[in-house]
């Protein structure tokens, strides 16, 4: 994996932008793996780290806008069928997509922000935002903020792992486990959150 990545990084910041943009369209390698790798290998100092954050966030944001435009173009029904047919190939369950699409109708800004912290979902939920014709400006602002936080967290972690003397593979694996755990917690909250809120309101009278 590092061979092709290193070759692309040979093109400098343009290569970094292409990697981050392509990951947003097709999440191979996953963004957290890519960002950890960039933080560990391509950021010799704080200034370069900040530049990498700006470039990768711009690329991620551009990828989201592409999928938003696709959703606006094809409409909700066709977007739903597209995810139903192709979702399993990119590890996105159609049920997850539909639940988040329903949540979008209730609070699109919050979901746009939180979606940026869920692997795979963060790539393709902008299709739902476009298909539902959600306002572009709030969607863009929430997506940009979420992408900045996500990218900064993994780039900084990779940067701190650089030269730490610790087993980078073991640390990276633990980080991926944490990401998956957070994704699971979010999906549980999405599924059972309304029920819990109703019960709390009933308990409080």
TrEMBL record:
InterPro entries: DedA_domain (IPR051311), VTT_dom (IPR032816). It is found in: Cell membrane. It holds the Pfam family VTT_dom. The chain crosses the membrane at residues 46-70, 124-149, 169-193. It comes from the Bacteria. Residues 30-159 form the VTT domain. It is a multi-pass membrane protein. This is DedA family protein.
